[in-house]
């Protein structure tokens, strides 16, 4: 335990953990450093390939981009490459378990770190709920194949339409998404009792997901109808006023202006392609999850960049191919379901293949939920150790050696969101949190280059400062596209306002950094959470 001077006044808001202090905390950490580059790539692929490709691709195509969902994936992939390069630099220089929260604490100070913690709660906590809704869709579809029918009212959030297996007809309206609640509760229980997943089990799950996706591309490509790709960018709805035709340049300019001003014309057209990119941004969140494993990496300077960038490149190629096959099999307007790949394989007419895809999706999504909830509990644990959250969130169960109170609270909140919020609302809010957090990460790279030029950076973001600036700008453009929705904007602003109030009521007065106390060793007792890969 190290003690420095006690800080008073509003200046406490801008206290920063020094880079040396963060590195010292890492050196004194007790987490097992056993992850190599291949483990990290597989961890990233395991978390990336999930809800984005199995669930949100259909929504983005049906509601916003049409067949141009392929272009949306290219846009988002380029953006994530910029952000991933920034993450790679920070992860190699600051290999800590707090991820973006710790990076922000070192650069912009305590209040910014608190805001980052709020954003990561949206990213990880609600992301797990999004995955649960997708899991529910595939589970219900698989049960239908086995002639077990779950009442539609128990398979969706209140007021959400439930579609038939073809995605063409409404068969009911949801009251509660019971399968989603059940699977989140099961994952929470696993995290509480500390049932660790071995590297072998996780690698098998990743192999299953990769096999399912590649098989879908290979088999599904034989059933593609090229007519479904035309027009690549459907006409905007509502269409532009008569007599005002616009070329591609004018469409792009107006789309960006609409995003900036909040006047969203995002159903199809160029604006729809951009908004679709914002929606499917969720599909790439796994590469950021790799950075949370920095404290367990054997050689973070070398392995973290390989893990982050390797997983991103592999998944981007698979995403573009999968979306091309998906909209080539099923007309894009019929893909607005929680299980679009299931809709496509049902239409192909190969019952055995449909079962394989659904089982693969269920297994893969289960793994993703575990990693996301695990990541959220780790962030809460880190914030609690810093004094910004109540101490009980860092309490470790005497028998299971896991932060059980923290895990139960996170799990209960995720259950409520999964059971009673729509997929649209959950994914939008999760993406808003992620995009805002990624913007801060890009800014952090710039700040540390200026404030700590002598910091050892085993990996340096190329083309500095262009790369982090472009990453931040692209994140803001997509963020504003999502914020054009009134409900999403209002929830996000109210959520941030409440979070800031909590900081001034509790966090600022209990911050260990502000009170001159820094934990370097084993107080409180370090948690032993299930490690996705060892």
Q: Overview of this structure, please?
A:
By secondary structure, the chain is mainly alpha-helical. It is 63% helix and 2% strand. It contains 18 helices and 4 strands. The strands form 2 sheets. Strands 1-4 form a two-stranded antiparallel ribbon. It has a two-stranded antiparallel ribbon with strand order 2-3. Helix 6 packs across helix 18 and helix 7 packs across helix 14. The radius of gyration is 22 Å and the shape is globular. The protein starts with a strand and ends in a 16-residue tail after the last strand. The relative contact order is 0.22.
Protein topology:
Elements (H helix, E strand, L loop, with lengths): L1 E2 L15 H9 L9 H12 L2 H15 L3 H25 L6 H8 L2 H36 L15 E3 L6 E4 L4 H16 L5 H22 L27 H14 L7 H11 L6 H6 L8 H30 L10 H9 L2 H35 L18 H17 L2 H29 L14 H18 L2 H25 L6 E2 L16
Antiparallel strand pairs: 1-4, 2-3
Helix pairs in contact: 2-8, 2-12, 3-6, 3-10, 3-12, 4-10, 4-12, 4-16, 4-17, 5-6, 5-16, 6-7, 6-14, 6-15, 6-16, 6-18, 7-14, 7-15, 8-12, 8-14, 9-10, 9-17, 10-17, 13-14, 14-15, 16-17, 16-18
Proportion of residues in helical segments? 55-70%
Globally, the shape reads globular
Report mean pLDDT, rounded to a whole number: 79
How many beta-strand segments? 4
Strand content: under 5%
First-to-last CA distance: 29 Å
Question: Which assembly state applies to the chains in this document?
Answer: single chain
What is the number of helical segments per DSSP (H or I, 4+ residues)?
18
Rounded to the nearest angstrom, the radius of gyration is 22 Å
Record the strand order, biggest sheet: 1-4
Low-confidence residue ranges: 1-6, 239-257, 259-265, 520-534
Based on secondary structure, the structural category is: mainly alpha
Largest sheet: 2 strands, antiparallel
The ordered H/E elements are EHHHHHHEEHHHHHHHHHHHHE
């Amino acid at each position: 335990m190290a003690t420095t001077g006690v800080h008073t006044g509003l200046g406490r808001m801008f206290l920063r953990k020094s880079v040396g202090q963060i590195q010292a905390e890492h050196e004194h950490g007790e987490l097992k450093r056993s992850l190599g580059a291949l483990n990290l790539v597989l961890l990233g692929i395991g978390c990336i390939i999930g809800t984005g490709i199995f669930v949100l691709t259909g929504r983005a195509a049906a509601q916003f981009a049409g067949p141009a969902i392929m272009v949306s994936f290219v846009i988002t992939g380029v953006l994530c490459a910029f952000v991933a390069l920034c993450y790679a630099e920070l992860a190699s220089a600051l290999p800590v378990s707090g991820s973006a929260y710790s990076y922000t604490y070192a650069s912009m100070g305590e209040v910014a770190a608190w805001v980052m913690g709020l954003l990561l709660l949206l990213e990880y906590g609600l992301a797990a709920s999004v995955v649960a809704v997708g899991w529910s869709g595939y589970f219900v579809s698989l049960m239908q194949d086995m002639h077990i029918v779950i009442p539609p009212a128990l398979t969706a959030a209140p007021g959400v339409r439930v579609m038939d297996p073809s995605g063409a007809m409404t068969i009911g309206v949801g009251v509660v998404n019971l399968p989603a609640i059940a699977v989140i509760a099961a994952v929470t229980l696993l995290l509480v009792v500390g049932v660790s997943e071995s590297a072998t089990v996780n690698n098998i799950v990743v192999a299953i997901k990769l096999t399912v996706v590649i098989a879908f591309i290979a088999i599904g490509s034989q059933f593609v109808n090229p007519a479904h790709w035309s027009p690549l960018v459907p006409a905007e709805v509502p269409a532009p006023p008569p007599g005002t035709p616009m070329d591609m340049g004018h469409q792009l300019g107006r789309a960006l202006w609409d995003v900036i001003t909040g006047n969203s014309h995002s159903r199809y057209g160029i604006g729809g392609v951009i908004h679709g990119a914002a929606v499917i941004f969720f599909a790439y969140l796994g590469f950021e999850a790799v950075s949370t494993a920095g404290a367990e990496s054997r050689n973070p300077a070398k392995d973290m960049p390989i893990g982050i960038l390797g997983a991103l490149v592999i998944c981007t190629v698979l995403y573009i191919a999968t979306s091309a096959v998906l909209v080539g099999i099923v007309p894009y307007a019929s893909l607005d379901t929680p299980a679009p790949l299931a809709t496509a394989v049902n239409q192909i007419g190969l019952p055995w293949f449909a079962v394989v895809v659904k089982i693969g999706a269920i297994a893969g999504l289960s793994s993703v939920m575990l990693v996301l909830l695990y990541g959220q509990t780790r962030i809460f644990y880190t914030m609690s150790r810093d004094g910004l959250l109540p101490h009980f969130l860092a309490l470790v169960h005497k028998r299971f050696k896991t932060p059980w109170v923290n895990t139960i609270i996170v799990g209960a909140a995720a259950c409520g969101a999964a059971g009673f919020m729509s997929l649209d609302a959950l994914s939008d809010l999760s993406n808003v949190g992620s995009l805002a957090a990624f913007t801060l990460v890009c800014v952090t790279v710039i700040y540390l280059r200026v404030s700590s030029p002598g910091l050892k950076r085993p990996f340096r973001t190329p083309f500095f400062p262009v790369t982090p600036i472009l990453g931040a700008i692209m994140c803001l453009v997509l963020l504003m596209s999502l914020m054009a929705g009134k409900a999403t904007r209002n929830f996000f602003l109210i959520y941030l306002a409440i979070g800031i109030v909590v900081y001034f009521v509790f966090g600022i007065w209990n911050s260990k950094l502000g009170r001159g106390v820094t934990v370097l060793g084993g107080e409180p007792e370090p948690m032993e959470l299930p490690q996705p890969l060892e």
